[in-house]
Amino acid sequence: MNVRRKWISLAMTAGGAALVGCGGDARVPNAIAAKELRLQPRLAEGQRAFMQNCNVCHPSGSGGVGPALNDKRIPPFFVRLKVRHPLGAMPRFSPEVLPDAKLDDIVVYLRYIRRHGPDIERLGENAGT
Predict the structure, then answer these.
(1) What is the pTM of this model?
(2) By C-alpha distance, which of 65, 8, 81, 58 is closest to 109?
(3) Which of 25, 105, 120, 129 could disulfide-link to 46, CB 3.0 to 4.6 Å?
(4) 3-125: what fold?
(5) Tell me: the pLDDT tens digits for 74-107?
(6) SS3 sequence, 63-80?
(7) Are 34 and 101 in contact (CB under 8 A)?
(8) Alpha carbon 99 to chain centroid, angstroms
(9) In Å, how far are 29, 88, 107, 120 from 111, measured between CA atoms?
(10) Domain boundaries in the chain?
């Protein structure tokens, strides 16, 4: 095993271990207000890219086939690493399938739903005001 693969394996193992037991069972709904999406184009692009590539296994960022993503503080580098070099059942998303810019937008989206979790439903309800 070359040095790069060892570092990737080590980072993924450490990141996975750090995520186990993090956060409670706080699930965040996927109801970001349209107004907020218009104000933050990268957030809108991140939500779109997430829905196209990730939502089938991580529905609305919650656990499904894959683990919940919206109730943990996942470092952006770890998201990128996991997407490009997955372990287990997660499929690999190459830069040709999921360009780096879209992956960065997904990170923006995941950070937003984590940070605004309790407020998302309220913001969505007040979208017309």
Answers:
(1) 0.70
(2) 58
(3) 105
(4) Cytochrome Bc1 Complex; Chain D, domain 2 (1.10.760)
(5) 899 999 999 999 998 999 999 999 999 999 999 9
(6) CCCCCCCCCCCCCHHHHH
(7) no
(8) 15
(9) 14, 24, 6, 13
(10) 3-125
